[in-house]
Amino acid sequence: MERRQGSDILREIEGRYGGLSPQLQMGARFILDSPRDVAVYSMREIAARADVKPSTMVRLANKLGFDNYVELRDEFRRRYSEQSSGYAARARRLQLRNVGDEDSLIADMMGAEVSNIQNTLSGFDDTDLEAAARNFLNARRVHVVGLRKCYPIAHFFKYATRVFFKDCRLIQGNAGMFPEEMEQIGRDDILLAAAFDPYTRETVEAVRYAQKVGAKTVVITDNTVSPLAAGATHLFVAANASPSFYRSLSGALIIVQALVAAIVTALGEPAVEALEQSDKGLRRNNTYWNG
Description:
Shape: globular
CATH superfamily of the largest domain: Glucose-6-phosphate isomerase like protein, domain 1
Structural class: alpha/beta
CATH topology of the largest domain: Rossmann fold
Order of helices and strands: HHHHHHHHHEHEHEHEEHH
Number of helices: 14
Largest sheet: 5 strands, parallel
Distance between the termini: 69 Å
Low-confidence stretches: none
Number of strands: 5
Helix content: 40-55%
CATH architecture of the largest domain: 3-Layer(aba) Sandwich
Radius of gyration: 21 Å
């Protein structure tokens, strides 16, 4: 298939994702998740990280309109060659310096997390946050779901907004009650959902149910072809690369913190008053250590 001249390679992949075979989709998903890695690492390394055969990456390159994988890699090298300064570039140089060094785990972790934060924040602006904040404040009820590895994301949002959204519900499915909790989402409500690949089935179902009943959905996920992404009222993509076997949560936490900050800003003086009352209650109940 011929590639359209002047098109953005990531948008090309997103646009053709649905027509790819399952194996090619695995390779494409990795590229969407970690585009900078394609510019740096060998085809065999990228294939190993994507859990596919090297020949799959060659076929993917051909499918995207390149004669070979080297041309695909060079496209990503050109894409990021101008980014020679800043946190992301320094993190990349740090990672490259330690490639193959068995003692470089801490350096690799630090580099990956800095890049995750930088890449996540570069993907949206104040307009996105302000619009999402208004929808949270205008909703009849706020629902939050994030299961398994994404539970900390959901719980943090619930905790950080507890004094603003008194009726905020954290959907957890305790005692097998997930369907009943999910079905309490109404048309005038809003759902915040977080999930990364591999996506927890119940989280996907919650998002689709909310959309079915007409509720607004704010999604935090790992790429634009995530099963949570389609139809989202607000989509925030979190970079989550990590040398560890678990995906990083730093990018998603940054998004949640930014959402909370936008909500506080939109609320104005009532937010300050609510936080003051909450703080007085916590101190009155000796919540904080006073050694």
